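agent> Task received from the user: take the single chain below, predict its 3D structure, and emit structure tokens. No templates, no multimer pairing.
agent> Plan: (1) validate residues, (2) run structure prediction, (3) serialize to tokens, (4) report one or two observations.
agent> Step 1 OK, no nonstandard residues flagged.
tool_call: predict_structure(input=
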Amino acid sequence: MVKCGSSLELLLTLSGIGPFCCPVTIGRLPDDILLEIFHFYVDEYRHASDHRVDGWHTLVHVSRSWRYVVFASPRRLRLQLLCTPNRSVKEMLDIWPELPIIISDPDWYGRPKTVENVENAVSALELKDRVSWIDLHVSYSDMERVAAVTQDPFPALTHLELWSNDRMAPIISESFLGGSAPRLQCLILSGIPFPAVPRLLLSATDLVLLQLWDIPHSGYFSPQAMVTHLSALTRLKIVSLALRSPRSRPAKMSRRRPPLTRTILPALTYLDFRGVTEYLEDLVARIDAPLLVQFSMTFFNQLVFDLFQLPMFLCRTKAFTVLNHTQIVFDKNAANVDFSSGTETLNETSLSLTISCRELDWQLSYLSQICNSVLLALSAMDMEYLDLRPTGTISCAYPLLIEDDMENTQWLELLHPFSNVKDLYLSQKVPTYFTPTLEELTGERVTEVLPALQNIFFYGGDDEREPVPKAIWEFVTARKLSGCPVAIHRSLWGSKVGRG
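)
tool_result: status=success, residues=500
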């Protein structure tokens, strides 16, 4: 029943009942040893069962003495009551002692909602002083019921997740949770319009994770309001803001002057944003995040990307001044550029920018604007590696591109800021769209882009003998004649790049 690690085996041995001692029946184990075994068991169950917290139920049904040991140490074993929409709260409370309550709906996918389901969750929410965790997926009518019973403080609440796929979810009022959440450590809202969320954050000084996804326009809050109320959150490590509509943008009047002083978020390591550039510009103009190492941005389609505050914010963040690897990916729905430190560690520094756009010529134009803004601002970066990679859907998304007379200057504008790149990686599908640009780079123009280039890695084919496109060989020949030689290397999918 129990998986004993080496530390538990050592504990049993030192107690005279380990594998190297005389056999002993489990009934003779002292309570402190039983407690350690129970602790291992409960943790194993929690990890093996996707963080379910009711593994201790098995223990208390074995014997009266085991039940005594379990209930005598509720904090050591982290005893909690798991309330789901399919469990009768009344029956649960009649059986078990007063323990912290977790309200969660782990089986929400594909399961129809019923009145009984909602009633069970609402009944549990009425026990405000004991609820420590809320994780619910709600419809419009469910959200109205939930909001009605969450107008008072929940003093024990540490984790709150509310999800809604209803495009017309009701607006949550500022009296939600009594306007205070002093012990809250994790707040995740998806599809929930809650314009007063910044005010709630002012009291959540223990908050570590904040994820506000698919924020409807009806739940809009300004960047200024958000930053003002984040100022007290000194433990905050993860922030994710995703606006649903491009209409959610700050008023022009509020963007005239950047603040004289900025808010420091001392523990922030991860920032994720989806919305319009104006919102992000107003946000990063007001903050400093000295420990930030991962920053992901997704922008709605817009004609002009005016990025002035973002480059300055990146320059103020030390981790982003040492990026040296770039990967550009074109897809049928978006274009993406990733900058990274190339260390491939768990905490690898990364900067990701994505544009939601279908047309390849627009994708090139938008990425050119962004790369020129970001890379020229971070001029100290030694960008050694550039990977141009369309996904497998690009040929389906743009079947007429070869016939169309796309402006090659768009590729040149995209590559222009990568003046330090030494290694260029081209997947098999790139040359179809990219080689016409290389054909224009003749004579003195051959070093107009990628002047520091030393290697081209051509990869992604199914046959190592597949010829390298003629334009690439002609470009390499021209570079050699100019005194700036470039070597060509070949590889297949999943294999190491080899010299060709």
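agent> Step 4: summary for the user.
The longest helix spans residues 31-48.
agent> Done.
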